[in-house]
Amino acid sequence: MNINLLIKLSNNCYWEPKTQAVIYDNHPVPLTSNMTTLLTLLIEHYDRPISSIDIFFHIWDDYDKEFNPKHIRSLISNLRKRLPCLIINNYYGGHYVLKKFRDNIPDITDYVLEILDQAKNGLTISDPNQPDNPVIFVNEAFTDLFGYTSEEVIGRNCRFLQGEDRDQTGLDEVREALSKQRDVTVTLRNYTKSGELIFNELTISPIFDKKNNKIKYFLGVQKNVTAVQKLIQQIKRMI
Ligand SMILES: Cc1cc2nc3c(=O)[nH]c(=O)nc-3n(C[C@H](O)[C@H](O)[C@H](O)COP(=O)(O)O)c2cc1C
Question: Any idea what DSSP says for residue 72?
Answer without folding.
Answer: H
